[in-house]
Structure formats: structure tokens, C-alpha cells
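Might you be able to consider the sequence and fold that I enclose below?
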Amino acid sequence: MTTEPPIHFEAASTIAVVVSSNEPLLFLSEDQRVIAASSSFCRAFEINPATIPGRRLSDLGGGEWAMPTLASLLKATASGVAQIDAYEIDLLRPNRPARRLVINARTLDDGDKERVRLLLAVTDVTDMRAEARLKDDLVRDKAILMQEVQHRVANSLQIIASVLMQSARRVQSEEARGHLQNAHHRVMSIAAVQKQLSTSTVGKVELRTYFTQLCESLGASMIADADRLSIAVTVDDSAVDPDVSISLGLIVTELVINALKHAFPDQSKGRIEIDYRSADGDWTLSVSDNGIGLPTGSDAPKAGLGTGIVEALARNLRGTIEVSDAGPGATVTIRHRAAADADATLPAAE
């Protein structure tokens, strides 16, 4: 008569820990027979605990655990050749939806040096993956919706600008015509920004492409003779958040429109240059022209709506504005210093 070898104290302790675990665990022999299974494993996969001990892994349930790839990986783990780390596999059962499982396995020293034992941990990630896919789908749908909204807004602004221009051509009053033309330019500046955002993807906005396309749109709508007036863009590899790009884009459009309207009244040729540079959180944006320069004295115009818009946007970006004579022409520079942001967050001295 043969008898089973006595169970070591350490082995008995391991079995007790496995059975009481809140995680789905299997304690296996080298030939992949089940020594113990946690209650959570039995509940998760609807297997009667009384039918598990002594059975091969491949015989559990209705045979759904007979997975050749898993068996090969467990064999390699038992021999010390490999170990299973977050291996994903589908559990297929008749008339039930597939479950996505993540498998981890290790050899386990239970006190018996002459035997190899395996601890197999099983995590069902089916619902988690479904939620992740749903979240990805929602994010993608939101991005598509936002782009569609931006596209429609840009188109609507273009229509409004056209109506304003048609109205300006029909009115008899020079003053009314001037107001309508100014309103047209203002709408066009916003439309130009919206047009670029409607074609950009979610995430950082590359300013070189953004400013270039922006200025091409402004030039196409406001420059009748491209041989007379031109706009040049010089930008480094900077990329900013969408909300920052909106403010920068509106600043550029306001300053470019102002230069196109006032800097070249009698010149045969003119040029507007946009330059942007950033480093270590600091950035500088400048818009220059080689026009008539800054009027002084009684010729100096009063600050208009465009000036107020630029000043408000610069404050919003925590930037400072400097207007200087470019000899010839004028330059408007907006500077932002990261140190200013840090100082603004410091508590006031008591």
C-alpha cells in the first residue's frame, strides 16, 4: 500500500493563503495539477471548488482552460527557462462571451525543495478594456465634433464678413462705410484663427505652420497686389496649447491688419514680418513692418479697438508690450518671461 508523502508545514500554509486570497489564484504542481484554488477563482469562473484539487488545469470547468500556449508557458516557467508576465489570453466558453484574461505565473518555494510548485494569478480585464475602448471612442468623437463645430463657425464668420463687405459697398456715408469695413476686418481676423483651428488636431499646435497659414489667409483676403505687399513668417519649432494659440493668433491678425491698413499709404512696396522665438518657458512675438513708422504729435492716432484687443490678450498671456521705431517702419513686441509667472504665484510678504 502506497501513501502520499506528508505535507510540509510551509506547503500547508501556502495552500491556506491561496484558498483565502481575494485574488483569483491557482497553486499548481509541476505537471500542472491543481493543488489549491482560491475561492475568488472558483467564483469568477463558476467552478465547483470540490471538483478542483488533483485535476489538471486543462480539465477545469468544461475544458476551456485547455490552452496549449498557456500550458507551454507554464512548462517553461516550471523548468526555469521563462516566466509569465502579464500574458493576455482569451477564455472561450460555449454560449458565453469571451473574457480577456491577464496571466502571471511564478515558481514558488513551499518548503519542499524536491518539488516545483507554480503560483498562477489570473486577472479578468474584460470590463476594464471595454471601458477604456469606450473612453477612447468618446474622446475621438469629441475631437471630431469639436473640429466640425470649429469648421462651421469659421464658415459662418466668412459669411458674416461677406455680408459686411457688401453692406459697406452699398452705403453712401463714408463714416458708416468705415465702420462696416472695420467690422469686416475684425470678423476676418477671428475667422482666420478659427479656420486654422478647424484643420488642426487635438493637442499642441505647431506655431510655424499655424502662423504661416494664418498670414496666408490674411494676405489672400486683404492684399490686392501681392507684388506690392508681402507677409513673411519666421518661427522656431515651438508648439503651444490650443488656448494659447488662439490668443497668439488673434494678436498676430490684429497687428497684421493694422499694418496693412496704416503702414503703407503711399509706398510702392512693403513687407510685414512675424517672428516668434521661445526658450525655457520664455517667448517673444514681434510683428514688424517697413512702412511709414510711428506717427507722432497730432498725427498720432487714438488707441482703437484693435489696440485694446492686443493689450487684453497680452495681459491674458502674462506678456508685456513694447512698441518701437524700426527705422523704417515700426515693431510691436510681446514678451513673456517664465520668471514673471513664478513671481506671480509667490505669496505676498506680510
Notes: The first helix runs from residue 9 to 20.
